Every structure is written in structure tokens, then in C-alpha cells.
Queue: 2 jobs
Job 1
Amino acid sequence: MSTQDFESAKQRVFDLRTLLDQYSYEYYVKDAPSVADAEYDKLYHELAALEEKFPNLVSSDSPTQRIGGTILPGFEKVIHEAPMLSLGNAFDESDLIDFDRRIKKLTDKPFSYICELKIDGLAVSLKYEDGKLVRAATRGDGTVGENVTQNIRTVKSVPLRLKKPYSIEVRGECYMPKASFIKLNQEREENGEAIFANPRNAAAGGLRNLDPKETAKRNLNTFLYTIGDFGEMTAVSQEDALRQLDELGIRTNHDRRVFQTIEEVWAYTQEFQEKRTDLPYEIDGIVIKVNEFEVQEEVGFTVKAPRWAIAYKFPAEEAHTVIRDIEWSV
Ligand code: NAD
């Protein structure tokens, strides 16, 4: 490798970090992205590839080493006892085949995959004590989130009391249904207010509003998909855990499916790529998880994400929507 290669990589890494930091700020803090997710993802992967090629250029403040956003002032901070992680990404079938190979190198045990819709909202944590909702928080930067308990209480599908007096922490996605998003933007346009680029940003702005009455107007909803603290619960697999969440009265997404092979997983991603426009909420991909908890434990985590899960992201259809919506707003 020549010095010139290294110097030009260093400059490009610097430029990419500056750009990605700006985009993250607009997306996570302002809830108003200026570029489509696919564009962000492309630059992010260029940065990750350069850092892999030139490990000396990796630094702890790089966007590749961080999770999510910043905490808004005005909200009480909540420390997540178990960090709320991100997910690695896959963009095509060969990425999924590589994922399958990596897992099979890490375990000899037989296992299955569970596929879930990747709901395009923001991650939240709900804490129950003796069956009562005591706290809700955003993911924030993964370690520290915002206390949004009063806001989550306005989401009608979130049970304030579980069907069993368990002390558990459940995590999932808070989102805005497409119909509510269209209605909200129509109203905002009529009132001469800035419109939201997409339902995800409208949901984030609604949930992270200091006035819970404003949150209530957004008609937000949730799908819960993971357990942060099992409390009295025991489960052997993701499928088992989700079924038990259903029994507690917690809303989960029922389009999940279990498969034995990565080829079947790929077919499922393609099926929902077709169906996504018919769903009443936005999805931006499919999350694929090793189903059996024993195998998940063996496969483990990186600092940023579980090794036993990956998010397959749909191709850039949404890019057009976002760009069109932004143009439409000017
Ligand atoms: P991610 O969106 O790639 O995936 C992780 C998240 O998926 C989880 O945190 C969870 O919130 C969500 N999720 C939804 N359904 C799930 C399910 N069934 N099981 C598990 N998780 C589920 O990662 P991220 O860290 O939340 O966000 C990074 C992404 O945000 C980028 O890839 C990019 O697309 C977007 N982004 C866009 C901009 C922009 O300017 N357009 C800026 C920053 C980030």
C-alpha cells in the first residue's frame, strides 16, 4: 500500500465521517433527514470498508462505532441495564449466505431462523414491575435513552397492566401507521407547517415531544419484539418468547415465520418486498434472527450488534418516496 493510498483514504474517511455525522444529527435529533436512508447506508458502507482496509483509521468516535442518536435536552435520562443494540445489515442474497456461514462456523448445534418484519419506527423499552408499566424509554445512543413514559401511556395498544404480575423489560418499535402519517401531513400543510419526510420521523418527533397531548394526536402504535429483562419469564426461543408476550397482552407482529434454511429466508424477504406497499405501516426490511436462545448465546455479540441477527434492507424504493416528499415540502 502506498503512502498516497493511505493519505487519500484518510481524507475520504474524514469527509465521510463529517457527512454521516451531519446526516445522523438531522435524522436522530431533528427528525428531519435531508437524504434517503439508502444514500446514508451507501456512505456508511464505504466508510466501514475503508476502515476495514486501513484499521489504523478506525477511531472510537466514528459513526461505525456508535449506535443511534443523541439525547434531547428536556427529557430525563434512562440508563439501559442491558444496552439496546443496533443490527448488522444485509443488502442481497449473498450477504445472507455469508451471515449463515458465519453462524455455522460459530456453532455446531442445529438451529432455525425466525424472520420478522423490520418495522420502520424507533426502538423503545417498556419496563413493567409486578405487571404494571413503570417506565418507557427510547433507545437513544444504546446505553442512555430518554424517559418517555408519559408519552408511551398515550399509545392505546401498550398495556398499562400485563395479564400476569411479571417484572420484565420488553423492547420493540414505536411507529406511525401510514394512514395517520398522511392525515398528519395534510393537516400540517393546511396549517402552513413543515411536513414530515416519512412516518418514522413523524413517530420520533411525536414520541419525543415534551407535551404528551401532542404525542396522543399522532396515533402512534407499537410492535414489541424482544425481551431486555426476562424477570419471572423463561423462554427457549424467540418464537416462544413472542408467543408468551402475546399471552401477556403485549402487541407483537404476527407476520413472523420460522425457517430451517437461509434459502427459505431469502424467499420470505422477497415475498415481503412485494407485499410491503399493502401493509398499513412502513417496513424497511426483514430482521432475521437465530431462533433458539441456546444458540444465540453461543454465537454472541459484537460491541454494536448481535452476531445471531441481521437486518436485510429492501432496495432503495423508499429513497424515491423520501426525496419526493422532501421536494413536495418546498
Ligand atoms: P437499523 O435501522 O439498521 O436496524 C436496527 C433497528 O431495527 C433496531 O434498533 C430496531 O429499532 C429496528 N427493528 C425494527 N423491527 C425489528 C425487529 N423485528 N427486530 C429487531 N429490531 C427491529 O439500525 P439503526 O441503528 O436503528 O439505524 C441506522 C439506520 O438509520 C441506517 O442504516 C439508515 O438507514 C438510517 N439513518 C438514516 C439517516 C438519513 O439521513 N437518512 C441518518 C442516520 C441513520
Job 2
Amino acid sequence: KRLILIGPPGSGKGTQSPIIKDEFCLCHLATGDMLRAAVAAKTPLGVKAKEAMDKGQLVSDDLVVGIIDEAIKKPSCQKGFILDGFPRTVVQAQKEKQGVKVDKVLNFAIDDAILEERITGRWIHPSSGRTYHTKFAPPKTPGVDDVTGEHLIQRKDDTAAVLKSRLDAFHKQTEPVISYYKQKGVVADLHAEKPPKEVTVEVEKVLS
Ligand code: AP5
Ligand code: ZN
């Protein structure tokens, strides 16, 4: 299966991805995670991406299309993939050759009002991508990853102020991507405001 996950910041894409990945044996390609790794490693790509990311703006189409083109060639992605956070603009949707042949687009539909609490309470384990939330999905020990015992961190862009720009970018640049795929008849709308397990059940229904 070739899947695309679209939704605003905090809608649950990164929370559902590992579950879908394990259940359907797909590779998970998250442009946000790849960009954050590049920023942390101070690679030329990371240096170029950092400024836009810190401000909550989108990184240039050519950079992200380049990342996906490269990553999607991996043998582990040949059976199918989950694109999490890509495409974010209609230009990206049109440029990526594999992403064009998509089976399903999962639309994480949710009201903006819920997202600030989700974003400001999020803690992540950087090396695995595991995500926690102080209220909705707390780790066993505060600030510590359940599996490795390593420290959790907060994302630099997870503030109420930067969230405003990220939401703005979503409504202006990414919502047209949903319309683009609706015309192709491949969009499934999810109730992303429900608890995580209920969202998983909806995803499973769509994919089975
Ligand atoms: P990216 O990393 O993709 O961030 P985003 O789209 O803003 O999405 P998030 O990761 O914030 O949200 P999510 O839906 O994964 O939420 P999660 O499941 O973690 O992108 C970051 C930046 O990189 C962009 O701003 C841009 O600069 C750049 N970028 C990336 N891709 C790009 C592209 N294609 N083009 C250009 N630029 C690009 O959940 C959030 C929290 O809520 C967690 O704490 C979780 O535990 C909790 N939670 C999840 N689901 C539920 C639920 N159902 N109920 C209650 N709590 C829940
Ligand atoms: Zn995410």
C-alpha cells in the first residue's frame, strides 16, 4: 500500500504512523523527522532547512522532494510506504513520481482549537521518534523514554506562537493538497479529535 497522511500539526500523524507501519509492513517516511535529523547533524540540508522550521514555515519544495525521492528508493520501501507530512503543497504532490501513484490519503480532520494543548504537552524520544504527551500519553517516569530510559525532549517549534505560523501554513498551502487528492477520489476523512485508539480503529477500517 502507498499511503499519505495529511493533517495539521498535532493531529496525530506521528502517533498513528508506527502502528500502521507495523500492521501493514510499510516503511515510514516523515519529512519532519528527516529534516530535524539533518538540522541536528548540521548537514548542508539541515543548515538550509533550520530557519524556516524554527519559524513554523515550510521548507522549499525542491529540498523536500529531493529527500523523499532519495528515501523512497530504499529496498524496505518497495512493498509500500507511509508518507507522513509529505506532500505539503500541490507542487510537491505533482513533483514526486512515486507519491503520485497513491492508494489512499488519510485526512486527519480536526478543529484548530484542540491543537495547542496537544502540541505544547508533547515530549519526544528523538532517536526512536516515540511520542508522549504529559496529559494524553504520559511516560511511566516524567521526562524519560519508557523503552530506553533515555531523556525526552520538546521540539523547538512546539510553542503556541510557532504553532500559529504552522497552522497558517497548513490552511494556506496544505489544505489545497487535500482538495487535489479528493478530485482523484482517494481521500478518507478521519475523526482525528477522538482518542488515539479510536483513530487507529478508523484507520484499520479504511485500510482493510
Ligand atoms: P512535521 O514534523 O511534519 O510537523 P507537523 O506537520 O507540524 O506535525 P506534528 O509532528 O507536529 O504533528 P503530528 O500530526 O505528527 O502529531 P503527533 O502524532 O506527534 O514538520 C515540522 C516542520 O518541518 C514543518 O513546520 C516544516 O518547516 C518542515 N517540513 C516537514 N515536512 C515538510 C514538507 N513536506 N514541505 C515543507 N516543509 C516541511 O501528536 C501530537 C501530540 O498529541 C503528541 O504529544 C501525542 O501524544 C498527542 N496525541 C496524538 N494523537 C492524539 C489523540 N488522538 N488524542 C490525544 N492526544 C493525541
Ligand atoms: Zn509528526
